[in-house]
């Protein structure tokens, strides 16, 4: 089964929707215009029910099949939020909100799910219920967790849940996934160093937080090289380092922050423990006070075996067996669809969008060419997962 003909017929309509969303990006939990547009389109498409305000600014639509003998419900998810990045490309549909852009393709994901909703509402060629989940605040806000905590899975009786993400650098229309860990857990840390200020010409009279900070940065890199199994992945990145205000004063304080990415809960525990131990030891060694705030953010995105096998089967029917990879390498980026996969079995895939700028880059733009592929994949998850 290639691209569904009816979906190809309204490709231009979906492209217009995608570019409209792109021109009006909104940050996490502020997707008011986007959510209103989504709700308006869903009602226009004739879905059975539209519920707003789930997970603060999330939208959920219910589409009932011709029959419901199976009693089964499949959830399909897309994210809606943008990023705090200034767009570089001069498109006709360039962001109209300064400093905010759809740099990760959530405008495309939302459009794909709208297209699937339009087709499913027209045809209803399935036995069960389809739930369209439009999620806010994926970019660090944990909107997926907010929707789960808001009772979405139980309220709509979701049995399985599926999602996708565009993949720059992967050939257009190619699909990749894997059973088990697909994307990393993402944790953050914030470190405050309190030393003793001094004249820059008399460093021995102070306790230099800059030197202490550099010791921490270097020591953290040994977590991967000397504290964890080399066959298991961990990335510790210090991404900010602030200290001092002028060139002739050793400052009193410095601040560091960063992120830890892991694919395994045991390694996640080790990384957190070692960061805290390193800070304690180096602080004592220098006679400084070091405090650590360590936050566990998104868990590992773990695909369930049966649902991943099913997703691969559907993908092969849509794009062809030679365009599907079912054992792709995990990536160390994070995704809060992980919260939904912790609540219900399901699977997440990557959909290739060609040789474009990478996500979170000011030159990035979603490739509208892949909209029909994504829509067809989503539709067939429902039709094959709950056959009429």
Please provide a written account of the structure.
The protein has eleven helices and 16 strands. An eight-stranded mixed β-sheet has the order 1-2-4-3-5-16-6-15, sandwiched between helices. The chain has a four-stranded antiparallel β-sheet with strand order 10-12-8-13, covered by helices on one side. It folds into two domains: 264 residues, Zn peptidases (Aminopeptidase); 114 residues, Alpha-Beta Plaits, CATH 3.30.70. The chain has 388 residues and is α/β, with parallel strands linked by helices. Helices cover 36% and strands 25% of the residues.
Which SSEs are present, and which pair or pack?
Elements: H1 5-9, H2 11-23, H3 32-45, E1 49-54, E2 58-64, E3 73-79, H4 106-123, E4 129-135, H5 143-149, H6 152-155, E5 160-167, E6 175-176, E7 180-183, E8 185-194, E9 198-199, H7 209-227, E10 234-243, E11 249-250, E12 253-262, H8 265-286, E13 289-298, E14 301-303, H9 305-319, E15 324-325, H10 337-343, E16 346-352, H11 371-385
Parallel strand pairs: 3-4, 3-5, 5-16, 6-15
Antiparallel strand pairs: 1-2, 2-4, 6-16, 7-14, 8-12, 8-13, 9-11, 10-12
């Amino acid at each position: 089964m290639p691209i569904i003909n009816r979906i190809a017929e309204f490709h231009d309509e979906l492209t217009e929707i995608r570019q409209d969303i792109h021109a009006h990006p909104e940050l996490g939990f502020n997707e008011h215009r986007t959510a209103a547009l989504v709700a308006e389109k869903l009602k226009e498409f004739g879905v059975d029910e539209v519920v707003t305000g789930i997970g603060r600014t999330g939208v959920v639509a219910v589409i009932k099949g011709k029959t419901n003998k199976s009693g089964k419900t499949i959830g399909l998810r897309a994210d809606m939020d943008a990023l705090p990045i200034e767009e570089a490309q001069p498109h006709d549909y360039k962001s109209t909100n300064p400093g905010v852009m759809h740099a990760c393709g959530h405008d495309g994901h939302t459009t794909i799910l709208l297209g699937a909703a339009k087709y499913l509402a027209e045809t209803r060629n399935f036995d069960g219920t389809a739930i369209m989940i439009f999620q806010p605040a994926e970019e660090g806000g944990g909107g997926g967790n907010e929707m789960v905590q808001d009772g979405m899975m139980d309220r709509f009786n979701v049995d399985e849940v599926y999602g996708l993400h565009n993949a720059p650098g992967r050939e257009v229309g190619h699909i990749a996934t894997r059973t088990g860990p697909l994307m990393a857990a993402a944790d953050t840390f914030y470190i405050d160093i309190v030393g003793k200020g001094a004249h820059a010409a008399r460093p021995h009279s102070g306790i230099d937080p800059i030197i202490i900070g550099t010791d921490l940065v270097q020591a953290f890199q040994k977590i991967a090289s000397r504290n964890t199994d080399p066959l298991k992945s961990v990335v510790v990145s210090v991404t900010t380092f602030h200290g001092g205000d002028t060139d002739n004063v050793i400052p009193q304080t410095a601040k560091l922050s960063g992120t830890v990415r892991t694919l395994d809960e045991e390694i996640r525990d080790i990384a957190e423990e070692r960061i805290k131990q390193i800070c304690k030891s180096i602080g004592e060694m220098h006679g400084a006070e070091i405090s650590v705030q360590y936050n566990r953010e998104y868990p590992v995105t773990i695909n369930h075996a049966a649902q991943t096998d099913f997703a691969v089967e559907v993908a092969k029917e849509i794009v062809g067996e030679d365009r599907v990879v079912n054992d792709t390498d995990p990536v160390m980026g994070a995704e809060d669809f992980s919260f939904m996969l912790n609540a219900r079995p399901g699977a997440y895939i990557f959909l290739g969008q060609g040789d474009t700028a990478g996500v979170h880059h000011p030159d990035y733009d979603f490739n509208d060419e892949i909209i029909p592929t994504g829509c067809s994949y989503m539709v067939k998850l429902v039709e094959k997962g709950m056959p009429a």
